[in-house]
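Long-time lurker. I teach an intro course on protein structure, and each term I like to show students one example going from raw sequence to a predicted 3D structure in token notation. This year I'd like something fresh instead of my usual example. Would anyone be willing to generate the tokens for the chain below so I can use it in lecture? Attribution to the forum is fine with me.
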Amino acid sequence: MSETTSRVDEFVRLLAQNQRRLFVYVHTLVPNHADAEEVLQNTNLVLWREFDSFELGTNFAAWACRVALNQVLAWRKKRQRDRLQFSDDFLTAVAAETEDAAGALEDQTRALAGCLAKLPPDQRELIRLRYTEEGSIEAVAKRAHRTVEATYRALSRVRHTLHECVTRTLARENRA
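-- Reply from a regular --
Happy to contribute to a lecture. Here you go:
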């Protein structure tokens, strides 16, 4: 495989891995869904054009968010005629807060994944049925051969266990 092919593969992998995060980031700065999609497409084009300047091994998400912020600002300049406009300083502050929150969310997601792995199989299955398959409590109860009330109680206990585990994990990581 050539170096160019491997860089293209790496770009596609990183972009796909961060696409949802980028959309959420852009959408916090551009409230209209269709406009946010337009800005995201422009961001993707710039990311592709500028990928040679990206240093592999550094934080792709942070780099992509900076590019996205620049695209949001450029999009805003084109839309100056709209009456309601936030200042560039305000948008930059919101962007910084969003980046910080995204980092915290990644930490929480990682901690949750570790805590889920520690659950007994029957509790993991309840969580999977309820949240992965987006099943109603009634459907989960039926598949788990439990009453609806017992399912509510079991899910409540599991959520409480997960919350405590995630809280302990994040506290331990913050002390380290």
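Some talking points for your students: The helical segments are 3-29, 33-50, 60-78, 88-118, 121-132, 137-144, 148-175. The chain has a mean pLDDT of 85.
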